[in-house]
């Protein structure tokens, strides 16, 4: 029978939606497809490009491969935060984590965020998703199916809890009708979907099977699963007499294996059924629409249907397990390996990968169904298609599972945009980008940028290659992570004295640092070009003896974070006022500015080779700006006598900003370097041009200028 707490309310229940047609130019539809916990390299076409997958078992994702060929893909895309709720809050609103107030998964719940109005409730009540904008401002019909993991207030119009922005968000599988529910649970939806079948399904366990607490049906665990090797039907929530099952092993995040049910009874299948029904309805209504299809998989529990699991089980010996599964390098970081030692076992991780790969392939199959239905409807050229995920999955990298770190496997996700005739097809962009910009991009391409009040900016600047860095560097990303949440009395759990809170990525460099100057954790700096698996922290125990190049790059990325926080600070002082850190420290901007765990230097420069991105037409000339930073971290004052250009091609460049003067201790200055050309020099990568910095601390510094 269908569970009593499942989705059974009628389509007509709940607040009303008005669908009056509007006059004016034809509006684009939006099909927004996302997965949960699918990391950047878990697409077959991407694995084909990466050397570590050469000769290894690769994913079969023909539909995402095809979508890549039809889209512009962002190959170095980062989530704003490596956790579901915070990541989704930024993805759908374009706001920083600090501005949304959703800094942990628990803060999507009203009873949690109401414990502190200043830090959480007021911010959450001010949030606005792109679907709210399209519904309220442009009269779109909006529906959403699958995992939500956002405050339920966002189902409704801004400030009006009686009027919905989302028409339907669930499905009654017994009656085959869409419904709206005030609270949607993926587990309850799945149980309702399974219960709607008339087919008899086995619920007792055989052999080594255990019960999946997500769907309440048997599955066969693989080695990483804590109940692997235990008697069939071992109680999931209680320890055995030898305390072999600890409390941290009892969540659905630890459930990994092969499902006893067929693929007809997976959450992916059920969400796809609801979404396909929605597409038929929306297409027939002759009105602009937005449909979000949010697949739960490959998020845990990682229990895959046999159709897909069995295929990869036979191929598991050739899976690519990263060298970072050896966790020795974590001694030089604030991170620790997972408590489950099997996650540092190559054979166990390969078995785990079977489930993960299988779940991704299953999602791919249903994405193909959705895209084919759209194409067959004749709306292909009238619909903006977006594909992404909220964050990645460690999958054994750094001896970890899940997300919650700034390592590449957890913090990066795929991102594609398709709009035939407008967005180039088959284009790949290798500039670091952030999920904070997705909201703006959707509103931009649908013609509704006038309603954009986000902290991001449209990715059109990279798609059209129009970015010139007019006033600041637009080609780096910042991600945030703060695990504190309200406790029973209103104070926050945990504190800022452990772990990292900010990540900055520019070119191939990554800096990871805490919010507090006094935090005793190691900072982290990685050269991703030379160290793609992030196993050599350049700011670990050797930070105090770091080279000038390392010091310069650490200071450079810290300055970029400082500039970003100042731009995002807003009238409330979100990053400058200590009140928004619950009184811990002196505000993020001050704390980050003062934090320095690495070697000091009387003079540092951000680059010794300044490489210019592709110029774009600005007025009548091809133009591009880059920025050079100069600073001092020791006592005393640095005197910069002159910053000048040299070389036969120096005529193509212009310097502005700081050109001479004094730099105090722990201060920096910025030089704007502008390239201008009529176009003849664009094909020349190696120019005879350089910057000379004459200063009081020794020999002149030479910075060579290059075109990418």
List keywords for this structure.
708 residues, alpha+beta, seven-stranded mixed sheet, five-stranded antiparallel sheet, 16 helices, 31 strands, 23% helix, globular, disordered N terminus
Q: What would you say this structure looks like, in words?
A:
With 708 residues, the chain is of the alpha+beta class. 23% of the residues lie in helices and 22% in strands. A seven-stranded mixed sheet has the order 4-12-1-14-15-2-16, with helices on both faces. Strands 22, 24, 25, 27 and 29 form a five-stranded antiparallel sheet that branches. A hairpin with a 4-residue loop joins strand 9 and strand 10 (217-221). Helix 9 (267-284) packs parallel to helix 11, helix 10 packs across helix 11 (346-376) and helix 15 packs antiparallel against helix 16 (588-594). The longest helix has 31 residues, at 346-376. Residues 1-24 have low confidence and may be disordered.
Mean pLDDT value: 93
Number of helices: 16
- Give the biggest beta sheet: 7 strands, mixed
- Tell me, what's the shape? globular
- Roughly how many Å is the radius of gyration? 26 Å
Fraction of residues in helices? Answer: 10-25%
Strand content of the residues, in percent? 15-25%
Widest β-sheet, arrangement of strands: 4-12-1-14-15-2-16
- Low confidence ranges: 1-24
**Helical/strand content category:** alpha+beta
Number of strands: 31
Distance between termini? 63 Å
């Amino acid at each position: 029978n269908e569970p009593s707490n499942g989705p059974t309310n009628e389509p007509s229940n709940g607040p009303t939606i008005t669908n009056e047609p509007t006059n004016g130019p034809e509006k684009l539809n939006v099909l927004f497809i996302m997965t949960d916990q699918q990391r950047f390299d878990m697409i077959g076409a991407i694995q084909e490009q990466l050397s570590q997958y050469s000769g290894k078992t690769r994913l079969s994702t023909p539909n995402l491969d095809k979508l890549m060929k039809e889209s512009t893909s962002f190959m170095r895309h980062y989530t704003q935060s490596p956790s579901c709720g915070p990541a989704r809050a930024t993805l759908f609103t374009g706001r920083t984590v600090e501005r949304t107030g959703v800094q942990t998964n628990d803060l999507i719940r009203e009873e949690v965020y109401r414990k502190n109005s200043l830090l959480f409730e007021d911010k959450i009540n001010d949030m606005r998703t792109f679907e709210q904008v399209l519904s309220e401002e442009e009269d779109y019909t909006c529906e959403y199916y699958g995992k939500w993991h956002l405050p339920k207030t966002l189902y409704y119009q801004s400030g009006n809890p009686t009027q919905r922005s989302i028409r339907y968000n669930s499905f009654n599988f017994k009656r085959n009708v869409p419904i709206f529910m005030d609270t949607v649970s993926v587990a309850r939806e799945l149980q309702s979907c399974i219960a709607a079948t008339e087919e008899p399904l086995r619920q007792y366990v055989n052999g080594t099977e255990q019960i999946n607490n997500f769907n309440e049906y048997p599955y066969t665990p693989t080695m990483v699963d804590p109940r692997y090797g235990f008697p069939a039907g071992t109680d999931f929530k209680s320890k055995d007499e030898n305390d072999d099952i600890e409390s941290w092993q009892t969540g659905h995040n630890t459930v990994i294996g092969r499902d006893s049910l067929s693929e007809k009874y997976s959450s992916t299948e059920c969400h796809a059924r609801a979404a396909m029904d929605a597409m038929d309805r929306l297409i027939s209504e002759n009105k602009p629409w937005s449909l979000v299809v949010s697949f739960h998989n490959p998020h845990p529990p990682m229990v895959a249907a046999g159709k897909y699991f069995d295929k990869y089980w036979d191929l598991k010996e050739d899976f690519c397990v990263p060298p970072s599964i050896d966790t020795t390098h974590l001694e030089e970081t604030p991170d620790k390996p997972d408590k489950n030692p099997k996650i540092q076992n190559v054979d166990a991780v390969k078995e785990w990968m079977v489930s993960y790969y299988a779940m991704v392939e299953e999602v791919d199959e249903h994405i193909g169904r959705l895209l084919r239905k759209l194409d067959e409807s004749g709306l292909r050229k009238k619909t903006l298609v977006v594909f992404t995920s909220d964050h990645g999955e460690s999958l054994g990298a750094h001896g970890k599972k899940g997300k919650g770190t700034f390592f590449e496997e957890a913090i990066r996700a795929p991102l594609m945009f398709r709009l035939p005739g407008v967005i180039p097809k088959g284009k790949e962009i290798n500039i670091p980008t952030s999920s904070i910009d997705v909201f703006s991009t959707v509103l931009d391409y649908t013609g509704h940028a006038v309603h954009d009040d986000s902290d991001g900016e449209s990715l059109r600047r990279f798609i059209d290659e129009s970015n010139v860095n007019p006033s600041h560097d637009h080609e780096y990303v910042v991600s945030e992570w703060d695990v504190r949440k309200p406790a029973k009395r209103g104070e926050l759990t945990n504190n800022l004295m452990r772990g990292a809170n900010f990540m900055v990525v520019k070119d191939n460099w990554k800096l990871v640092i805490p919010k507090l100057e006094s935090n005793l954790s190691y900072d982290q700096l990685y050269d991703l070009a030379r160290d793609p698996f992030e196993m050599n922290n350049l700011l670990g125990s050797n930070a105090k003896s770091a080279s000038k190049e390392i010091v310069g790059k650490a200071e450079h990325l810290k300055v970029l974070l400082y500039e970003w926080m100042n731009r995002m600070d807003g009238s409330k002082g979100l990053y400058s006022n200590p009140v928004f850190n619950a009184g811990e420290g002196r505000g993020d901007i001050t704390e980050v500015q003062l934090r320095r765990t690495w070697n000091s230097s009387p003079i540092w420069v951000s680059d010794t080779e300044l490489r210019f991105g592709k110029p774009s037409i600005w007025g009548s000339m091809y133009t591009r700006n880059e920025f050079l930073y100069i600073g001092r971290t020791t006592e005393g004052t640095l005197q910069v006598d002159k910053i000048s250009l040299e070389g036969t091609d120096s005529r193509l460049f212009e310097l502005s900003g700081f050109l001479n003067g004094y730099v105090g201790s722990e201060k920096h200055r910025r030089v704007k370097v502008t390239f201008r050309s009529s176009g003849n020099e664009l094909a020349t990568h190696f120019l005879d041009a350089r910057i000379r910095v004459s200063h009081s601390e020794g020999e002149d510094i030479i910075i060579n200028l290059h075109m990418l």
